[in-house]
Amino acid sequence: MSKNPADYKYSQEHEWISPAVDGVVTLGITDHAQSELGDVVYVDLPVVGDSFAKEDSIAVVESVKAASDVYTPVSGEVIEVNELLDSEPGTVNTDATGNGWICKIRLSDPSELDELMDAAAYEEFCK
Amino acid sequence: MNAESIKCTPLCDKHVALGAKMVPFAGWNMPVQYTGIIDEHNTVRTACGVFDISHMGQFLVNGAGSTEWLNSMFTNNLNKLVDGMGQYSMMLNEKGGVIDDLIIYRLGEDDYFVVVNASMIDEDYAWLSAHKPEGINLVNKSADYVGLAVQGPACEDVFAKICPGVELPVRNGILMFNADGDDVVVCRTGYTGENGYEFFCPAAKGVQWFEKVMESGAKPCGLGARDSLRLEMCYSLNGSDLSPEKTPLEAGLSWCCDLSKDFIGVEVLRQQKAEGRPSALVAIEYTGKGAPPRHGYAVQLPDGTPLGELCSGVLSPSLGKGIGMAYVPTALGKVGTEVNIVVRNKAIPAIIVKKPFLKK
Questions:
Q1: Which end of chain B has a smaller Cβ tally under 10 Å, C or N?
Q2: Predicted ipTM?
């Protein structure tokens, strides 16, 4: 079964959000999402300093066959992006919830986290 | 395409059992990948892969006058074929635009086996029927066969195991024979740029032959790899790179058009040959880094002048860079021309190159 860390939150668009530390979370796509996409060959990362509202397209993950938008389930400012993905986009496949993270976001509304699913609910959602 | 009308090949359940991701293609539910497109692509370039091509169409044409009639329907010259040999050809509309590209094999005098695209079976059959003189037989055999494209440098080893003692036909050749009690057809052709053949067997025995081919060393491969493999070779895909609005001369396929004979659409081709083609299908390769090129992305000169849009595009697994094809005004489409591909408002530098992308 897919690897969904128990302390992460999950969106219906198959993104994960790590627990907030000092108001900052990490965002990525789930193991289920990378498996559906197939070989990831390119990740269009956001620009550090840009702000996004909940449900904005924050990145694009591209497989050989398709380009898929990544929608942020939380609002905030991008403070760091995973530059490893420029040279090793396949990390999204091999380690979606770890080294395949996409960006770090400073939350503008931490209460948005409460609207997301926990790991058990997300696994149920994927069935 | 809604779920009720989508068609399944006899191998569908087997694909699902093998873990394939299924997608709709040309009205068929087809495997896009099993383990991964890049892995499957590389397997065909270095070893051997097998593709389900049961969705493709097969027609038989025979009866006195068949050669003369088909020569009036298709662009290539059938008088160049001897028994057991095939050729790539095109069927055009009155405007010289492409209805379909196909391979036609000569089985004997006035006796032909024609392989056409899946999406065009009904349209091709209707067009041919509407133009067919009395006394010539045209039979749609598409539902009778399961087709397996066995492709890659190890394809001959696979064939030696599935049909021991049988010699593969030469390049572009066809062989019909009986294997283990089944009437089968082997065509020495493909859509990948590798050594390969297309094997057609009775539909009811398709799963058994598919299993036998896999047990003999061919890895199942999906449409994703089929697309990246063919695009590296600049092989045209009807519906993307070929269209009823573009002639084969514009598509760069004049080599399969004999303008010295008469066929539907020839006047337009002769005129384009004399006066020049309005557009040309060119091969474009990234020189900079950027998101993979895809169908529909704009192609511009570096100053922003629009040239056209990509009909096909992919991040080439063999070359590690973006490749694509686009129709551009002929005068602006010279090899060496620097262009930009526009992806989500970002201009990615690229250059028009000689075909094919992959020099073998």
A1: C
A2: 0.85
